[in-house]
Amino acid sequence: MRRGFFGGLAVALVLFALAVPAHADALANIKSRGKLLAGVKYDTPPFGFVDSANQLGGFDIDLVREIAKSIGVSVDFVKVTSPTRIPLLVAGNVDLVAASMTNTPERAQVIDFSITYYTGAQRLVVPVGSPIHGPKDLDGKIVAVQQGTTLERNLAQVAPGAKALPFRDYNSAWLALREHRADALTGSADILRGFIKNAPGFTLVGERFSVEPFGMGVRKGETALRQVIDDTLRRLWKSGRYQELYRKWFGVDPEIPIASAG
Protein backbone atom coordinates (compact mmCIF):
# COMPACT_ATOMS: atom_id res chain seq x y z
CA MET A 1 0.00 0.00 0.00
CA ARG A 2 2.73 2.45 0.93
CA ARG A 3 4.80 1.55 -2.10
CA GLY A 4 1.77 2.19 -4.28
CA PHE A 5 1.21 5.54 -2.62
CA PHE A 6 4.75 6.73 -3.27
CA GLY A 7 4.73 5.34 -6.81
CA GLY A 8 1.51 7.24 -7.48
CA LEU A 9 3.00 10.37 -5.92
CA ALA A 10 6.04 10.18 -8.19
CA VAL A 11 3.87 9.78 -11.30
CA ALA A 12 1.62 12.66 -10.24
CA LEU A 13 4.61 14.93 -9.65
CA VAL A 14 6.13 14.07 -13.02
CA LEU A 15 2.85 14.82 -14.77
CA PHE A 16 2.56 18.07 -12.84
CA ALA A 17 6.08 19.06 -13.86
CA LEU A 18 5.39 18.31 -17.52
CA ALA A 19 2.24 20.41 -17.41
CA VAL A 20 4.09 23.52 -16.21
CA PRO A 21 5.71 25.69 -18.89
CA ALA A 22 9.50 25.88 -18.94
CA HIS A 23 11.00 28.80 -17.01
CA ALA A 24 13.74 31.16 -18.08
CA ASP A 25 17.11 30.87 -16.37
CA ALA A 26 16.39 31.05 -12.64
CA LEU A 27 19.72 32.58 -11.63
CA ALA A 28 19.38 35.35 -14.21
CA ASN A 29 15.84 36.04 -13.01
CA ILE A 30 16.98 36.23 -9.39
CA LYS A 31 19.72 38.72 -10.24
CA SER A 32 17.34 40.80 -12.36
CA ARG A 33 14.73 40.76 -9.61
CA GLY A 34 17.31 41.50 -6.92
CA LYS A 35 15.73 38.96 -4.66
CA LEU A 36 15.87 35.22 -4.02
CA LEU A 37 12.52 33.52 -3.30
CA ALA A 38 13.17 30.58 -0.99
CA GLY A 39 10.63 27.99 0.09
CA VAL A 40 11.24 27.03 3.73
CA LYS A 41 9.32 25.47 6.58
CA TYR A 42 7.94 27.58 9.40
CA ASP A 43 7.20 24.69 11.76
CA THR A 44 10.27 22.45 11.82
CA PRO A 45 12.83 23.42 14.47
CA PRO A 46 15.76 23.67 14.23
CA PHE A 47 15.66 23.81 10.40
CA GLY A 48 13.01 26.48 9.91
CA PHE A 49 10.58 27.84 12.48
CA VAL A 50 9.00 30.96 13.95
CA ASP A 51 10.32 31.68 17.44
CA SER A 52 8.62 33.22 20.48
CA ALA A 53 9.48 36.70 19.16
CA ASN A 54 7.69 35.86 15.89
CA GLN A 55 11.01 35.79 14.02
CA LEU A 56 11.85 33.21 11.38
CA GLY A 57 15.06 31.34 12.04
CA GLY A 58 16.77 27.98 11.73
CA PHE A 59 19.58 26.07 10.06
CA ASP A 60 17.95 26.08 6.60
CA ILE A 61 17.18 29.78 6.97
CA ASP A 62 20.79 30.69 7.72
CA LEU A 63 22.12 28.57 4.85
CA VAL A 64 19.73 30.25 2.41
CA ARG A 65 20.86 33.67 3.60
CA GLU A 66 24.44 32.65 2.80
CA ILE A 67 23.36 31.55 -0.68
CA ALA A 68 21.61 34.89 -1.26
CA LYS A 69 24.84 36.66 -0.25
CA SER A 70 26.75 34.58 -2.80
CA ILE A 71 24.33 35.70 -5.52
CA GLY A 72 24.42 39.30 -4.28
CA VAL A 73 20.69 39.70 -3.60
CA SER A 74 18.28 39.85 -0.68
CA VAL A 75 16.00 36.94 0.19
CA ASP A 76 12.27 36.55 0.74
CA PHE A 77 11.11 33.42 2.54
CA VAL A 78 7.95 31.64 1.42
CA LYS A 79 6.21 29.20 3.74
CA VAL A 80 6.02 25.63 2.43
CA THR A 81 5.02 22.27 3.87
CA SER A 82 6.10 18.77 2.88
CA PRO A 83 3.15 18.34 0.46
CA THR A 84 3.49 21.82 -1.10
CA ARG A 85 7.24 22.35 -1.40
CA ILE A 86 7.77 20.57 -4.74
CA PRO A 87 4.58 21.84 -6.45
CA LEU A 88 5.39 25.43 -5.45
CA LEU A 89 8.93 25.05 -6.75
CA VAL A 90 7.89 23.51 -10.07
CA ALA A 91 5.18 26.14 -10.56
CA GLY A 92 7.75 28.92 -10.15
CA ASN A 93 6.44 30.37 -6.88
CA VAL A 94 9.91 29.94 -5.38
CA ASP A 95 13.42 29.70 -6.83
CA LEU A 96 14.67 27.03 -4.48
CA VAL A 97 13.40 24.88 -1.65
CA ALA A 98 15.38 24.41 1.56
CA ALA A 99 12.90 22.52 3.71
CA SER A 100 14.50 19.51 5.43
CA MET A 101 13.85 17.54 2.24
CA THR A 102 15.33 14.10 1.66
CA ASN A 103 16.81 13.48 -1.78
CA THR A 104 14.97 10.43 -3.15
CA PRO A 105 14.93 8.86 -6.63
CA GLU A 106 11.22 9.68 -6.94
CA ARG A 107 11.71 13.35 -6.20
CA ALA A 108 14.80 13.53 -8.41
CA GLN A 109 12.57 12.65 -11.36
CA VAL A 110 10.79 15.97 -10.85
CA ILE A 111 13.39 18.41 -9.48
CA ASP A 112 17.17 18.71 -9.23
CA PHE A 113 18.93 18.52 -5.87
CA SER A 114 21.99 20.25 -4.47
CA ILE A 115 24.74 18.25 -2.85
CA THR A 116 23.72 16.74 0.49
CA TYR A 117 24.03 19.46 3.12
CA TYR A 118 22.74 17.47 6.10
CA THR A 119 22.35 13.77 6.88
CA GLY A 120 19.47 12.99 9.19
CA ALA A 121 18.39 9.87 11.03
CA GLN A 122 14.80 8.85 11.81
CA ARG A 123 13.86 7.99 15.39
CA LEU A 124 10.89 7.97 17.76
CA VAL A 125 9.62 10.27 20.51
CA VAL A 126 7.32 8.89 23.22
CA PRO A 127 6.03 10.03 26.62
CA VAL A 128 8.39 9.30 29.49
CA GLY A 129 7.53 5.87 30.91
CA SER A 130 6.10 4.55 27.64
CA PRO A 131 6.50 0.81 26.96
CA ILE A 132 7.74 1.75 23.48
CA HIS A 133 11.53 1.48 23.31
CA GLY A 134 11.96 1.20 19.55
CA PRO A 135 10.24 0.20 16.30
CA LYS A 136 9.83 -3.40 17.49
CA ASP A 137 7.35 -2.18 20.11
CA LEU A 138 5.05 -0.36 17.67
CA ASP A 139 2.76 -3.24 16.70
CA GLY A 140 -0.80 -1.95 17.10
CA LYS A 141 0.43 1.46 18.29
CA ILE A 142 -0.61 4.80 16.78
CA VAL A 143 2.35 6.74 15.39
CA ALA A 144 2.06 10.39 14.32
CA VAL A 145 4.02 11.11 11.14
CA GLN A 146 4.22 13.64 8.33
CA GLN A 147 2.03 12.64 5.43
CA GLY A 148 3.55 11.72 2.07
CA THR A 149 7.16 11.78 3.26
CA THR A 150 10.03 9.31 3.45
CA LEU A 151 9.29 9.22 7.18
CA GLU A 152 5.93 7.59 6.49
CA ARG A 153 7.45 5.08 4.09
CA ASN A 154 10.27 4.16 6.48
CA LEU A 155 7.80 3.64 9.32
CA ALA A 156 5.80 1.19 7.18
CA GLN A 157 8.98 -0.73 6.40
CA VAL A 158 10.35 -1.09 9.94
CA ALA A 159 7.02 -1.38 11.78
CA PRO A 160 4.35 -2.75 9.43
CA GLY A 161 2.08 -3.43 12.40
CA ALA A 162 2.03 0.22 13.47
CA LYS A 163 -0.98 2.42 12.77
CA ALA A 164 0.28 5.53 11.03
CA LEU A 165 -1.56 8.75 11.88
CA PRO A 166 -0.48 11.17 9.11
CA PHE A 167 -0.44 14.96 9.36
CA ARG A 168 0.47 17.69 6.91
CA ASP A 169 3.12 19.20 9.19
CA TYR A 170 5.32 18.45 12.18
CA ASN A 171 3.48 20.78 14.56
CA SER A 172 0.20 18.92 14.08
CA ALA A 173 1.89 15.56 14.56
CA TRP A 174 3.65 16.79 17.70
CA LEU A 175 0.36 18.13 19.07
CA ALA A 176 -1.28 14.74 18.51
CA LEU A 177 1.38 13.08 20.67
CA ARG A 178 1.09 15.74 23.37
CA GLU A 179 -2.69 15.33 23.44
CA HIS A 180 -2.35 11.52 23.69
CA ARG A 181 -4.01 10.93 20.32
CA ALA A 182 -0.85 9.07 19.30
CA ASP A 183 1.45 6.71 21.17
CA ALA A 184 4.60 7.94 19.43
CA LEU A 185 5.89 10.51 16.97
CA THR A 186 8.47 9.67 14.35
CA GLY A 187 10.73 12.07 12.47
CA SER A 188 14.28 13.24 11.93
CA ALA A 189 16.15 12.95 15.23
CA ASP A 190 17.36 16.55 15.34
CA ILE A 191 13.89 17.87 14.56
CA LEU A 192 12.45 15.73 17.33
CA ARG A 193 15.10 17.03 19.74
CA GLY A 194 13.92 20.55 18.90
CA PHE A 195 10.37 19.67 19.94
CA ILE A 196 11.24 17.93 23.21
CA LYS A 197 13.88 20.46 24.26
CA ASN A 198 11.37 22.26 26.48
CA ALA A 199 9.01 19.33 26.99
CA PRO A 200 10.43 17.23 29.86
CA GLY A 201 7.57 14.71 29.68
CA PHE A 202 8.84 13.28 26.38
CA THR A 203 11.97 11.45 25.31
CA LEU A 204 13.76 10.00 22.27
CA VAL A 205 13.89 6.20 22.21
CA GLY A 206 15.46 3.49 20.10
CA GLU A 207 18.22 3.57 17.54
CA ARG A 208 17.95 5.41 14.24
CA PHE A 209 16.21 3.35 11.59
CA SER A 210 16.92 5.34 8.45
CA VAL A 211 19.48 7.67 6.90
CA GLU A 212 18.03 10.82 5.33
CA PRO A 213 20.28 12.85 2.97
CA PHE A 214 18.84 16.37 2.84
CA GLY A 215 19.29 18.46 -0.30
CA MET A 216 18.04 21.82 -1.52
CA GLY A 217 15.75 21.61 -4.52
CA VAL A 218 15.71 23.65 -7.74
CA ARG A 219 13.69 23.20 -10.91
CA LYS A 220 14.92 20.68 -13.47
CA GLY A 221 17.75 21.99 -15.61
CA GLU A 222 18.57 25.03 -13.43
CA THR A 223 22.26 24.16 -13.52
CA ALA A 224 23.60 27.67 -12.84
CA LEU A 225 21.54 28.14 -9.69
CA ARG A 226 22.34 24.67 -8.44
CA GLN A 227 26.04 25.34 -9.00
CA VAL A 228 25.88 28.51 -6.89
CA ILE A 229 24.16 26.54 -4.11
CA ASP A 230 26.74 23.74 -4.24
CA ASP A 231 29.69 26.14 -4.37
CA THR A 232 28.32 28.11 -1.42
CA LEU A 233 27.82 24.98 0.69
CA ARG A 234 31.35 23.77 -0.08
CA ARG A 235 32.79 27.20 0.73
CA LEU A 236 30.89 27.33 4.03
CA TRP A 237 32.27 23.94 4.99
CA LYS A 238 35.87 24.77 4.09
CA SER A 239 35.75 28.12 5.89
CA GLY A 240 34.23 26.65 9.05
CA ARG A 241 31.08 28.77 8.75
CA TYR A 242 28.95 25.66 8.16
CA GLN A 243 30.25 24.08 11.38
CA GLU A 244 29.54 27.33 13.23
CA LEU A 245 25.92 27.35 12.05
CA TYR A 246 25.55 23.65 12.80
CA ARG A 247 26.69 24.15 16.39
CA LYS A 248 24.36 27.16 16.68
CA TRP A 249 21.27 25.10 15.85
CA PHE A 250 22.14 21.56 16.91
CA GLY A 251 24.45 22.16 19.86
CA VAL A 252 27.10 19.73 18.60
CA ASP A 253 29.67 19.50 15.83
CA PRO A 254 28.60 17.78 12.60
CA GLU A 255 29.59 14.11 12.55
CA ILE A 256 29.21 13.72 8.78
CA PRO A 257 30.78 16.15 6.29
CA ILE A 258 28.49 17.61 3.66
CA ALA A 259 28.62 15.65 0.40
CA SER A 260 31.48 16.57 -1.93
CA ALA A 261 32.97 18.95 0.65
CA GLY A 262 36.39 17.57 -0.05
In short:
This protein has helices at residues 2-19, 26-33, 59-71, 85-90, 105-108, 150-158, 170-178, 189-196, 223-239, 241-250; strands at residues 35-40, 43-44, 48-50, 56-57, 74-79, 96-97, 111-113, 118-127, 142-146, 163-167, 184-188, 202-205, 211-214, 217-219.
Describe this structure in words.
It is a single chain. The protein is an alpha/beta fold and 262 residues long. The protein folds into 2 domains: 2-117 and 215-248, D-Maltodextrin-Binding Protein, domain 2; 120-211, D-Maltodextrin-Binding Protein, domain 2 (3-Layer(aba) Sandwich), CATH 3.40.190. It is 39% helix and 23% strand. The protein has 10 helices and 14 strands. The chain has helices at residues 2-19, 26-33, 59-71, 85-90, 105-108, 150-158, 170-178, 189-196, 223-239, 241-250; strands at 35-40, 43-44, 48-50, 56-57, 74-79, 96-97, 111-113, 118-127, 142-146, 163-167, 184-188, 202-205, 211-214, 217-219. Strands 8, 9, 10, 11, 12 and 13 form a 6-stranded mixed sheet that branches. α3 (59-71) packs across α9. The relative contact order is 0.18.
Short descriptors:
single chain; 262 residues; alpha/beta; D-Maltodextrin-Binding Protein, domain 2; 2 domains; three-stranded parallel β-sheet; 39% helix
